Amino acid sequence: VKVLVFVEFSGTSVKKGALELLSAVSGQSNDVVAVALGPGSKALAGPLAGWGVKKLLALESDKLSTYNPELFASVLAGALKAEAPDLVLANSSLMARDLFPRVAARVQAGIASDCTGLSFEGGQVVVRKPLFSGKCSARVMFQNCKTSMVLMRSNQLPVGSPKGDGRPEVVEISLAPADVKTVATGRSQGSSTKLDLTEANIIVSGGRGMKGPEHFGLLDSLAQPMGATVGASRAVVDAGWVPHSMQVGQTGKTVAPSLYFAVGISGAIQHLAGMSGSKVIVAINKDPEAPIFQKSTYGIVGDAFEVLPQLTSEIAALTKN
Ligand SMILES: Cc1cc2nc3c(=O)[nH]c(=O)nc-3n(C[C@H](O)[C@H](O)[C@H](O)COP(=O)(O)OP(=O)(O)OC[C@H]3O[C@@H](n4cnc5c(N)ncnc54)[C@H](O)[C@@H]3O)c2cc1C
Questions:
Q1: Residue 248, Cβ neighbours under 10 Å: how many?
Q2: Percent of the chain at pLDDT above 90?
Q3: Which are the contacts of 265, defined by CB distance < 8 A and separation ≥ 6?
Q4: Quick check: 294 and 268 in contact, CB under 8 A?
């Protein structure tokens, strides 16, 4: 199977989600091509060494330093026409969810987004796609298309390790003139240096049980020694305690970290929709009947203001060694 993997990167490092995709397809007699767009893309040949990528299609242009849907779609559609892959894989990031439907329409590809499972059956790709906020899932196969596109949620596939040091051949692709109707004139970045919720391996989320924004520092203290990112329920976002970028759930971010702490969160279905794919869930709630306990791996019935400081000092002590 010829697979083209869209590699998102930050500076000189390849995002973990892209390594998950490469781990899923390399070493299975697949012919793997990676594509990366924007300044720094050529240099990814180094970090991609050993990940089974034969060829890296890169485009350095400054015009691609900020996501522009028209330019990105035009470049990718060109690359896809030239490479004619059977399968295109990308992470289900905000950018990819905007970009790939455009590309799919241009190259007449089939597309499945927000997938949580990926397998091959007799050379055919089969994906799992949650429906109705995760209440059930569909098994999806493609038909009547030469190219299938799959956007995978992060943290769903295991990351392997690089084998050997085989660097991909770098092929520069050109920026064909596109009919661009919008231009990004600036970019502002939030002050957070933490990983985005969708990429975090550990998340500590707080809900209305935290009583007020002034107490979110307790969550930061727990998160800090573990390198975790802090999230929130919608109730506290709506109350203006924290920004919407921190919201986990149906109308926020969908996350699937290895470890998820739900502190003072009741476990409403809309919250569960965004985090029930987490591998281990720890709930801290003073109400033993809170629905979150039905979904949690470990439950601590207690007052967050008593539990958090104890947990934080235990974890800080453990992570010191
Ligand atoms: C269309 C729609 C979309 C929605 N999308 C989302 C979404 O994306 N994300 C989301 O989160 N919600 C979403 N919601 C809202 C959702 O239904 C709930 O209202 C919300 O998740 C509740 O947030 P909470 O758990 O923080 O608050 P509550 O439900 O009020 O729960 C607070 C919890 O804190 C506990 N508690 C109180 N004090 C303490 C203490 N001292 N120590 C420990 N525990 C304590 C309580 O026992 C309680 O269980 C959506 C709703 C709708 C209708």
A1: 29
A2: 81
A3: 205, 206, 207, 208, 209, 233, 271, 283, 285, 292
A4: no
Give the whole-angstrom CA distance, residue 6 versus residue 34.
6
Does residue 321 register a pLDDT over 90?
A: no
Among 133, 247, 271, 307, which is best to mutate for testing ligand 1, by the most ligand atoms less than 8 A from CB? Answer: 271
The 10s digit of each residue's pLDDT in 217-240 is: 999 999 999 999 999 999 999 999
Instruction: Give per-residue burial for 11-36: e unless 16+ CB within 10 Å, then b.
Output: eeebbbbbbbbbbbbbeeebebbbbb
pLDDT for 24 beyond 90: yes
What residues flank ligand 1, with Cβ below 6 Å?
A: 207-209, 233-236, 247-252, 264-266, 268, 270-271, 274, 284-287, 290, 303-305
Cβ atoms 198, 288 nearer than 8 A: no
Rounded to the nearest angstrom, the distance between the alpha carbon of 268 and the centre of ligand 1 is 6
**Residue 196 gets which letter from DSSP?**
P
